[in-house]
Amino acid sequence: MSEITNLIAEGRAKRLYATENEDEAVVYYRDETVAFHGLKRGRIIGKGEINNLICEYMFTLLTEKGVPNHFIRRVDNRCSLVKRVEIIPFTVTVRNIAAGSLARRIGLPDGTRLRNPVIEFNLKNEELEDSLLNVTHITALNLATTAEVRQIEMMSRRVNEILSECMSGIGIELIDFKVEFGRYKGEILLADEVSPDTCRFWDANTHEPLDLDRFRHDLGDVEEAYREVLHRLTGNVLRSNEEEA
Ligand code: 5GP
Predict the structure, then answer these.
(1) 179 and 92 in contact (C-beta within 8 Å)?
(2) CB-based burial of residue 170 (10 Å sphere; 0-12 exposed, 13-18 middle, 19+ buried)?
(3) What is the pTM assigned to this prediction?
(4) Which of 75, 87, 159, 175 is deepest in the core (most CB within 10 A)?
(5) Cα(38)–Cα(31) distance, rounded to whole angstroms?
(6) Are 49 and 76 in contact (CB under 8 A)?
(7) Residue 225 and residue 211: Cα distance in Å, rounded?
(8) Where are the alpha helices (DSSP H) in 90-145?
(9) What number does CATH give the domain 4-85+225-234?
């Protein structure tokens, strides 16, 4: 791998570094976490390592199933090499079961199964609490073309099918997830991460959350839930108290 050069971006959960190869970047997964648009902050010890391994598993699966994405390979415990995409500045949330902000907005009880997957777009802007957008907002603001939005929606639906099937095979319900996309050499790639930070995973039997909601709502056993997801996916029993650098 070419050497890391400088820091490109720093978020609470990840840092992104440039490398000598301008087409590639290195993602460093942190233990830090935020919730409620940055209002609640904390640290989940070992999360960076666990999410790096979960993302390796998820992106490898998505590549095998033909979903173009930014992942190249895992580099070490906390870092992965990715294609350096230009991030499209809105997120896509796919929901199978009402929870979180949808349940609040629509007034549905948490856990209500939706008759079809709900797809939402949100502006990537924490100060504006990631405003909800529709396709006409996206084209009016020149965030993406209609054709790009159509492709992004199709890819998001496919990701939902693949992840739902994968998780159901290990006794976990995929409630919802949020993803980002990027442009790379004329292509649209799935980017960012797919992990318990960005998905709602409920145990299929107990309906207990195995994701960041444990931190958001002070449910306890946060690290244990992340380890459980990794273990069920890969058989890996990571036991690490390594602090981040
Ligand atoms: P909600 O809008 O219901 O709070 O969250 C919808 C989905 O987006 C959940 O799976 C949640 O974990 C995920 N999510 C919430 N905030 C963020 C964020 O800042 N980044 C990413 N990638 N996902 C998030």
Answers:
(1) yes
(2) middle
(3) 0.95
(4) 175
(5) 15
(6) no
(7) 6
(8) 100-106, 135-140
(9) 3.30.200.20
pLDDT digits (tens, 9 = 90+) for 37-77: 888 999 999 999 999 999 999 999 999 999 999 999 999 99
CATH number (2.40.50.140, 3.30.1360.170, 3.90.226.10, 3.30.470.20) of 87-221 reads 3.30.470.20
Centre of ligand 1 from the C-alpha of residue 8, in Å = 23
Distance CA 70, CA 73 (A): 10
User: 51 C-alpha vs ligand 1 centroid, how far in Å?
Assistant: 15
> Who lines ligand 1 at CB under 6 A?
93, 99-102, 176-178, 192, 198-200, 212
Nearest CA to ligand 1 atom 17: 198
